[in-house]
Amino acid sequence: MRRRLPIVGLQRLSLVDYPGRLCTTIFTAGCNFRCQYCFNVEIVLEPNKLENISEEETLNLLKERRGFIDGVCIGGGEPTIHGALPTFIGRVKLLGLKVKLDTNGSRPRMLRRLVEEGLLDYVAMDVKAPLDRYQEVVCAKVDVEAIKESIRILRRGRVDHEFRTTIVPGLISEEDVKEIARTLTGSKRYVLQQFKPGKTLNPKLRDLEPYPEEVLERLRDMVAPYFSECKLRL
Ligand code: SF4
Predict the structure, then answer these.
(1) Residue of 156, 171, 167 lying closest to 194 (CA atoms)
(2) Which domain holds residue 155?
(3) Strand pairing partners for 232?
(4) Is residue 118 a part of any domain in this protein?
(5) Probe ligand 1: pick from 26, 31, 128, 193, max atoms within 8 Å of CB?
(6) How many domains is the chain partitioned into structurally?
(7) pLDDT in tens, 126-184
(8) I need a labelling partner for 204 at 20 to 30 A (CA). Which of 70, 166, 186, 217 fits?
(9) 89 in a domain, yes or no?
(10) Which atom of ligand 1 is nearest to the CA of 39?
């Protein structure tokens, strides 16, 4: 029997998850990283405790909502750890909807396949830290070559994309942002994301004060020359 994509959450309407589009956001179960600032705690640590939403139910909802939305954002968790992802996206595309993938870039083989099969319209890839500090930030074993390969796949430009980094005080410094920008230099779009305290994987970050907006603006101005487009997501 064909494997199904484990879907554990749906946000029927999002104005922010897919740049320039109204979308429904789909959350897939589980992740191979344990980023300290992650706020999808249950999805990452205990997806089995969440309600499983079938592919059919999800596709029916998308079919119903086609008049209201023009895109679907698939995130998680980390969607690319699931072998069922390409077939599911193929089914979404048949509904005439644009598909955005949120990924941590750790599975370049899956990413390449999705790009080559024309299944994606937009990819947002997190670049979590300078390559030599990755493990420390994502708290998991990381194949840095895989991250580099995913960056290369997207930079080839077959699919519209952005790279993005969540700027967490005490975890990502000004020098780190500069180093990430050097790694990504010449890329089309880079987004600095504001850290949001709350229910984070690392409890120590739960009450952490985010950087003031002016600090993020200064960081953006510092690295903007490396990119065609560089912006803040607050
Ligand atoms: S923030 Fe990190 S741990 Fe959370 S879903 Fe994304 S990659 Fe996984």
Answers:
(1) 167
(2) 7-164
(3) 192
(4) yes
(5) 31
(6) 1
(7) 999 999 999 999 999 999 999 999 999 999 989 999 999 999 999 999 999 999 999 99
(8) 217
(9) yes
(10) 4
